[in-house]
Amino acid sequence: MKKCEAFIIGGSAGSLDVLLKVLPLINVAIKFPIVIVIHRKHGADSLLPELLSTRTKLKVKEVDEKEPLTAGTIYIAPSDYHLLIEQDRSFSLDYSEKINYSRPAIDATFQTAAEVYKDKLACLLLSGSNADGVNGLKSVKLWGGTTLIQDPTTAQVAYMPAHAQANVKIDRVLSIEDIVEFINLLP
Amino acid sequence: MELSVISDDHVEILLSDLLEKYGYDFTGYSRASLKRRIVRLYSLDRAVSFAEFRYKVNNDSLYFKRFVEQITVNVTEMFRDPVFFKTLRDVVLPKLGTYPFIRIWLAGCSTGEEAYSISIILKELNLLHKSLIYATDLNPIVLEKAAQGMFGMNSMKQYSENYILSGGLKDFSSYYTANYSLAKFDEDLKSKIIFSTHNLVSDYSFNEFQLILCRNVLIYFDRELQQKVLNLFDESLEELGYLALGTKETINFSGISDKYKRLDSEKIWRKIQ
């Protein structure tokens, strides 16, 4: 990858633990935004950004609609909306039907980001028990982006990354330590 | 690959067709959602080529209606965000209950679930007889569904839970009659709702209201159109009236925000000047 302009992480069951381990080790000087789309129960809104912000010096915030993506910020998808990325590199929200029984759906964020950032995008799919994210990774690949999964053998729930591995060309399979190193070394 | 059958240019072509041929202006809509809806419809209807798809939208009036219905998001629920409806029940509507007559505008009502929710609360507060709910949407097809007052039985368990969480004290099932897979809501709930087409992009203010609700509609608009629609609401709202938006929507960026004071915790603003 020549240059990373956005790094997006999708996860479901078992992914919070990974984030709690990875985020404290991310270099505060990263030159791109990190977007996190995690399946969670509707209504538990402000808790996740608060929880994650205690683990990093980077700015962590829940996305506001129409907000531009800024380097060095960690954005959390709000619960119960799909999180989309616009061509002008701002976020928009969408309350359409659930996808893969999920809202936010990882697919929706990966797919819209793929078309915007093309080969300057990296997307990572973590632990989960759902097929969400797989079609998204296909789009990322199609548009020239980098596809990453958590090593299924290290995932609390292997289904999601394993399903991606079986269906999409994955550029890198990463352990939790590898994830940290990969992100910190991105140009 | 699903996402490359319709390009960004194709989307712009379709939007200018809609504007020129039908007078529907979607150019202020956020593109990512719109494009996903168009791609979805394209594959759902197994379109053979963009040229054919475009031809149908332009020349088949029935298909045009389907197109408009499908590219706009019509997902809604009864008593969605129960805490919001609890605030309506406990704070906003009792305040408006001191007026001789209550006019409510529900903008972007889709298939009507929120209109019936509000009607139920008004009824329980003994205010329905002196209220009028104008429920509008740009899309005639969803308004027809709304006017029928029939919703899937499979949603009733969820709606009943929402209703109870929103402060409802009755047996929710007392408001409808089960008819096979559909729940038909009581006629008297509908008696004070006027369903009508209104396009927030192109239509003007048509009355003065004490409460305007427009939830999860502005998220589909760009900032410029959001500002325009908020101005329209401001023109249509009486002093001391209330404006209610969706959980992730705000008036903070807009030119009207100085005239409004937000109620604690909910996305409800009161017009104070």
Can you give a write-up of this model?
The complex is a heterodimer of chains A (187) and B (273). Chain A has 187 residues and is of the alpha/beta class. Helices cover 29% and strands 21% of the residues of chain A. Chain A has a seven-stranded parallel sheet, sandwiched between helices. In chain A, strands 5-6 form a two-stranded antiparallel ribbon. Chain B has helices at 8-22, 31-44, 50-59, 61-71, 82-96, 113-124, 140-148, 156-165, 187-190, 223-236, and strands at residues 102-107, 131-137, 150-152, 176-179, 182-185, 193-197, 209-214, 237-245, 260-262, 268-271. Chain B has a seven-stranded mixed sheet. Chain B has a three-stranded antiparallel sheet with strand order 3-5-4. The A-B interface holds A 64-66, 78, 80-82, 84-87, 92-97, 108, 111-112, 114-115, 135, 138-139, 142 and B 1-4, 8, 30-33, 36-37, 73, 75, 216, 219-220, 222-223, 226, 246-250.
The profile of the biggest β sheet of chain A is: 7 strands, parallel
Biggest sheet layout of chain B = 7 strands, mixed
Name the biggest interface: A-B, 26 and 24 residues
Strand content of chain B: 15-25%
Overall structural class of chain B, as computed from helix and strand content, comes to: alpha/beta
Rounded to an integer, what's the Rg of chain B over CA atoms? 19 Å
Question: Which helices and strands, and how do they pair?
Answer:
The complex is a heterodimer of chains A (187) and B (273).
Chain A: E1 6-11, H1 15-22, E2 34-38, H2 47-53, E3 59-62, E4 73-76, E5 82-85, E6 91-94, H3 106-117, E7 121-125, H4 134-142, E8 146-150, H5 159-167, E9 172-174, H6 176-185
Parallel strand pairs in A: 1-2, 1-7, 2-4, 3-4, 7-8, 8-9
Antiparallel strand pairs in A: 5-6
Helix pairs in contact in A: 3-4, 4-5
Chain B: H1 8-22, H2 31-44, H3 50-59, H4 61-71, H5 82-96, E1 102-107, H6 113-124, E2 131-137, H7 140-148, E3 150-152, H8 156-165, E4 176-179, E5 182-185, H9 187-190, E6 193-197, E7 209-214, H10 223-236, E8 237-245, E9 260-262, E10 268-271
Parallel strand pairs in B: 1-2, 1-7, 2-6, 7-8
Antiparallel strand pairs in B: 3-5, 4-5, 8-10, 9-10
Helix pairs in contact in B: 1-3, 3-4, 5-6
